[in-house]
Amino acid sequence: MESRELVRQTLEFASPPRIPHQLWTLPWASEHFPQELSKIQARFPDDIIGSPAFYRQQPVVTGDPYVVGTYTDEWGCTFVSRQRGVIGEVKQPLLATWEDLDKLRLPEEELSVDVEQVNAFCRSSGLFIQGGCCPRPFERLQFLRRSDNLYMDLGEQPPELFECIHRLHEFFIKEMELWAETEVDFLGFMDDWGSQRALLISPAMWRKIFKPLYKDYIDIAHSHGKYCFMHSDGYIADIIPDLVELGLDAINSQLFCMDIESLGSQFKEKITFWGEIDRQHLLATGTRDEVAAAVRRVKEALYQEGGVIAQCEFGPGGNPDNVFTVFETWEKMAG
Q1: pLDDT tens for residues 110-129?
Q2: Quick check: 159 pLDDT over 80?
Q3: CA angle 316, 275, 282 (to 5 degrees)
Q4: Which CATH number does 3-51+112-135+173-332 carry?
Q5: Which end of the chain lies in a sparser environment, N or C, as judged by fewer CB atoms within 10 Å?
């Protein structure tokens, strides 16, 4: 069975013959453990990949996000990195005050996608392919304003905040609609909403300001026959019911920040859990037995004739033996 059909059966709770897998890697992993990473990738090849964008016009960036120094992205936001292999933080915001709103430049180059090349890429592969855009309105606001300023904005709610959100959202809508017209299998978006134990803003504020944006992204995907996935780090249990209500097909989250069994009792067979296994502790310092037990716990709590994708992230501090064990354990468990 091709990966495309395997993932589709997983999302439809249609008893796939095995659990699909996907490994996320940061440059740190390939720099520190190149041989071990190659072994993992060869032994457990991904079922899910992203399509290249095939831009006709390249977005304007300066520097490298994964080397020590500064990097300016396609929106004009400058990140300062102090550790090789990990993207840095915005120290001097592009929009230092709302009087700077006219400095906001939308990266129109990202709308110059060569659709025919994307479609040819999709036709050449049996893998389950993600579109090459990823709206992230909350995080983009943080990059533009810097996080401390944005939290003040959310408390005070000046009209300029909502004008900025409107401009961002209109651009993200154009991106989503463009990619929805291609032959990719799914579209994705992201925002890291959780601290270790709670949402970063109140659920009520999230529902008022951000939930309607996500509804638009999901509706665009579904109206074009695509699945829709989301990523969010941290504790997000309070908004998963809302994401299920919106029809989100799969959520990538830090399961081990939450009560996994409670998630299963509420949402099993209502949404697919797209990973992950605890990268904060288990992948870094856990034993192989502990990692294997964690995988079995996720399967027992969340799997229901599908609804689980074997995913984890290999990044700073990760032990390659533990990452290997994640996929080895999934493989040993029949669908």
Answers
A1: 999 999 999 999 999 999 99
A2: yes
A3: 45
A4: 3.20.20.210
A5: N
Residue 323 CA to residue 163 CA, distance in Å, equals 43
* Residues 274, 311 contacting (CB under 8 angstroms): yes
* Distance in angstroms (rounded) separating the CA atoms of residues 186 and 129: 7
277 CB-contact burial (10 Å; exposed 0-12 / middle 13-18 / buried 19+): buried
| SS3 state at 293 | helix
pLDDT at 335 over 60: no
Alpha helices in 84-146 (DSSP H): 115-123, 137-145
The β-bridge relationship of strands 227-232 and 250-253 is: parallel
pTM of the shown model: 0.96
Strand 128-130 relative to strand 21-25: parallel, antiparallel, unpaired?
unpaired
Residue spans of alpha helices (H) in 24-136: 27-32, 34-43, 115-123
Q: Does a cis peptide bond (omega within 30 degrees of 0) precede residue 276? A: yes
Pairing of strands 69-72, 21-25: unpaired
By the 8 A CB rule, do 101 and 164 touch?
A: yes
Q: What's the alpha-carbon Rg for the chain, to the nearest Å?
A: 20
d(CA 76, CA 20) in angstroms, rounded, equals: 37
Distances (CA, A) of 281 to 84, 160, 319: 21, 40, 10
Antiparallel, parallel or unpaired: β 21-25 and 308-314 = parallel
Task: For residue range 3-41, list pLDDT tens digits in order.
Answer: 999 999 999 999 999 999 999 999 999 999 999 999 999
Mean pLDDT value of segment 287-303? 98
Q: Rounded distance, CA 119 to CA 117, Å?
A: 5
Locate tokens 């599908």: which residue?
Answer: 306
**Phi, then psi, of 243 in degrees rounded to 5:** -65, -35
Q: Taking the CB of residue 186, how many other CB atoms lie within 10 A of it?
A: 20
Q: Tokens in use for 218?
A: 């999901």
Rounded CA gap, 33 and 28, in Å? Answer: 8
